[in-house]
């Protein structure tokens, strides 16, 4: 795993790509990680859901998922801003796929049973940067809020 991580770091740091473009998997993982860490509490239930979301989207092996989760966390913690990740997704994904990503963010925010105002603020900012309409921002929030309410009523 460390050899793969080092290989990836070397590729990103290659001189021919001074400002190397992130791949779509890393861009997605970093933005999801931003939501997970936005309330200053990283909870296992959130990390587990994030892992599931990435697995479903990209069909990665367990080792690849581990690497992606580590890289995403490192990028989220060290990046000055996340515009390069947002731009990558905005440039390569259609509108519906970006809306789906916002819905995944809401699922993460509600996964621990409670949405924090800081999570909502971060999702709102990312939705704006991803050019997702306010109506879709609200609609996806309501879908995930209702799912959380159903989950909590079953407990």
TrEMBL record:
InterPro entries assigned: DjlA_N, TerB-like
Pfam families: TerB
Source organism superkingdom: Bacteria
All copies of domain Co-chaperone DjlA N-terminal, residue ranges: 25-141
Protein name per Swiss-Prot or TrEMBL: Co-chaperone DjlA N-terminal domain-containing protein
